[in-house]
């Protein structure tokens, strides 16, 4: 297996007018599963295609262990790629589809190939489908065939490009678990591209978050969730998305207080929270996740702020309570906390759950 290292990897299109991937540095450890996540057009697929050898970098290098593979042809890289549209040959049977990849990339005899296909089919639970053609299969079965075909080649690096987006929600959850199990079983280094932050959070050992071609943060799912480095990551990771409120800092008197006058919001910060940081009299963007906001149905007057309920969306396990505090401020509360629209409620949260971002640069301030 291989460690994959991207060093200042860059891809420009249309004579430099489009910078799809902007000097990305990323190290994926041997046997590690890294998901690359970001909004549409952020450069995920282009990055993956460069690792596969399907796209030539404008600058930078790609190493598999110590070998510089930047100029190595795709067919000579030990990678297997699984796509969203399965990329199966429609006129070949499942058996032929699986054997074909082996024929192209290994020097096995026909009997060895067929034995390997049988083993993989058994492992993927698709033995009964070996003589079927792709159009006789469901989406989930096609994806199992595509996975089996990729694994059969015993690649050093496994590349996934949104492989589950054509499947329904239940099957997607099943296949997520299956892919992770296979990846760990084979110990293959994996890079998995998705625009779905939930998929990225549940699947990767680590996440790499891209925006506009630039790597924003790399870290374990909990690290990224708890300590986003900037407002983009904070808003992109976590569902429903983090609330943002513009605040000014008031340091008159003994306390440092976050204020949003329009929302009637005043939040004194403790010394413990500030840990010596001097916020001075300036503006910040406060971030608080909906799951960290408490809704108090009968305000007692000691809450951080009171506000009006706009809409309540029950989702079974919780209620999403939309509040008039700022534009679409959301609280995620327990199902027994179910105020009515137009009710005045209290809002509380623990200062330890707050994030503060620089409104100009978006960077987390401490
Ligand atoms: P999506 O989730 O929509 O597939 P992505 O994050 O995978 O998006 P890419 O497909 O890598 O993004 O595209 C990144 C940028 O590069 C986009 O602006 C895209 O339009 C541009 N791009 C990608 N391929 C080409 C190409 N062959 N020629 C010109 N521009 C391209």
Automatic annotation (TrEMBL):
It is found in: Cell membrane. One of its GO terms (molecular function) is transmembrane transporter activity. Keywords: ATP-binding, Nucleotide-binding, Transport. Pfam families: ABC_tran (PF00005), TOBE_2 (PF08402). Its EC number is 7.5.2.13. This is ABC-type D-xylose/L-arabinose transporter. It is a peripheral membrane protein. Belongs to the ABC transporter superfamily. Carbohydrate uptake transporter-1 (CUT1) (TC 3.A.1.1) family. Part of the ABC transporter complex XacGHIJK involved in the uptake of xylose and arabinose. Responsible for energy coupling to the transport system. It is an enzyme of class 7 (translocase). The complex is composed of two ATP-binding proteins (XacJ and XacK), two transmembrane proteins (XacH and XacI) and a solute-binding protein (XacG).
